[in-house]
Amino acid sequence: MQLRDYFRIIAKRGWIIALLTVITTASALVFSYVQTPVYRSTIYLNVWPARLDWGLQQVITNLMRNYAGQITSRQTAAKVIDRLQLDITPDDLRAKLTVDPIEEDSLIQIDADDYDPLIARDIAQTTAEIFVEDIKVYMLEQDQRDRVEVSVRDYALPGVLHKPKWKINALAGAIFGILIGGLLVYILEWLEADIIRTAEDMERRLGVAVLGIIPAVTSGPRQQAKRRQA
After folding, report:
1. Which residues in the chain are classed under CATH 3.30.1890.10?
2. Contact of 39 with 114, CB cutoff 8 Å
3. Other CB atoms closer than 10 Å to residue 138's CB: what's the count?
4. Fold of 38-159
5. Alpha-carbon Rg for the chain in angstroms
6. pLDDT digits (tens, 9 = 90+) for 83-103
7. Mean pLDDT of the chain
């Protein structure tokens, strides 16, 4: 297809793409509006060796994923629930937590999600504090030179909006509308590919120039009256 053919299609059926884009974007915004906002609070834990030793540093790197599992364990969740007096189960609280070890920075990131930004903050802060307390108790039984120090890097702040993401949802809806509209236009053009309406359609179909066109015969009022008299 030539460039002018694309312009012709856009001029003819561009309204379909525009209409579907508006519909899908509006639907995405409505879907975002009816969702209950979820807030996320984040806190970091420092994980340091008691001495600067390469072997001990490697041990810590291997331990960090195990630490992440301990933070999201039912035992830790039960302690957090008891301290905050939350009316949920340990599994419910575990579903609110996301823990990611950042090995290159010797950090453990703890994210807590909740419908209330203050509760999200309290869950993140309390989870971090309880884990630090448990590690300190455990390290008392270890040789002082082989201990691993875990500490809270900074206190948690009230949660910020995590879901829904209005801009991302609207952009996704717009892209989806453009794709669906483009597909629909392609199907319509394909269905009408064999229909010849103009000289341009004939030239495009046969690949030869059209030298002449037989005009359509229209019957005016005078011609109809003459036919009746005859």
Report:
1. 38-159
2. yes
3. 13
4. Bacterial polysaccharide co-polymerase-like (3.30.1890)
5. 34
6. 999 999 999 999 999 999 988
7. 82
